[in-house]
Amino acid sequence: MLTAILFAAAAGFGMPSDPQSGGAPVDCTSLPNPLYFPATTLLESVLAELSPALADPDIMGDDAMTVVHFPLSSCISYDVQREQTPVSGTAIYYTAEGAQGSCNMPTDVEVLSDLSAMDVGGATCLGGESPPDELLEVPSYVETLGFVVPRNSTQTAITATEAYYVLKFGGEEDRQVEPWTDPNFVLVRNPGSSTQLTIGANTGIAGTMWNGALRDHAGSSDVRDAVIAENTTGNAERVLGILNSSKWEAAADNMRVLAFEPFNGCLGALFPDSTSTARDKRNVRDGHYPIWTNLRFILRTDANGNTVSDNGADSAARAQLLVDLMTGTVEIDGVTVAEAVIGVGNVPSCAMHVAREVDGGPIASFEHPAPCDCFFLEENGVDSGCETCSDGDTCNNGGECRFGFCEPA
């Protein structure tokens, strides 16, 4: 019951009106080829880039779909798919022309989700329990997270041990970490937030067990704004926040991410990027900066491992196609997944060289079958030194032409 209440409340909050119906939301079930998709709020920026192409028959042909996104926190999104709770409330969608609209689910019928997506693993949401066998968890692109401070703070780094004490004890006497001793200036999210859960998995204190005196926020934008506001109050030195890279990079003039030293780290504290001002995510991509997570898609499967949906075979096929596109298994001209992912500050899996199975778990080497390191760096304004090419060109280095650059074969 709690999941249903939270789902309805979150899905109906602050949504835009429909672009084609005089301002009133339409019935979600009336949209062409709807794909019912409860998913983390952090996916909205990527969907805004991709959904119009996915809805366009000129690009997708008979596979065109309307992605009906119910923006929720990660674990609630997961529960909706795991428990098969009917989707309800208001959702966001995009037309093929790029217009954003909203739709309402009808109250007289029950419709189940086709898939869901979250920024943490199912085991994290389940408190370490094994996910149900019928749920398939498919990792996709990487989101970077970390600790941030106002621009006027002099702090540059934090260790996992320091973070543990700040987050667990909240400034209790004899357990303080200077200068973050006042819990009113430690700006966190909430126990259901993927940002909080991911950071907790890397600091030894689960995101569901942080000190209740810390100052929680409903969304990442609220944390960002609260951090920035302290630049002018004289309290900047006391402020510590948690955010994802898309938020702090967009506000780089007003805040900074701290270098982080993990437990048993042999290289000291490192930034997600090679330097405090770079945009190459080098230390994320090679495994030296550990506070990152994969976006995970959650599909339902039958006994043979085939994707299924309560809404029928066509809906199941659309769900599988979306996942295949997002993970690079399938490519369609006009659907630029890697570009959209990079554009909102994330790392496509084709630019990663490490992977992990569980949040905060061991990091292992990873080789993508179609690397895109050159494209990733160039899209972030970093000179890759790579040879440029056009489709069909022969690369001098023996590589393959991808996204306009000669990448390793």
Keywords:
13 helices; 3 domains; single chain; alpha/beta; D-Maltodextrin-Binding Protein, domain 2; 3-stranded mixed beta sheet; 409 residues
Question: Can you give a write-up of this model?
Answer:
This protein has 409 residues and is an alpha/beta fold. It has three domains: 167 residues, no CATH class; 152 residues, Periplasmic binding protein-like II (D-Maltodextrin-Binding Protein, domain 2), CATH 3.40.190.10; 31 residues, no CATH class. 26% of the residues lie in helices and 20% in strands. The chain is built from 13 helices and 18 strands. Strands 6, 7, 9, 10, 11, 13 and 14 form a seven-stranded mixed beta sheet that branches. A three-stranded mixed beta sheet has the order 1-5-4. The chain has a two-stranded parallel sheet with strand order 2-3. Helix 1 packs across helix 4 and helix 2 packs antiparallel against helix 12. The longest helix is centred in the C-terminal third of the chain and has 15 residues. The N and C termini lie far apart (51 Å). The N terminus is likely disordered.
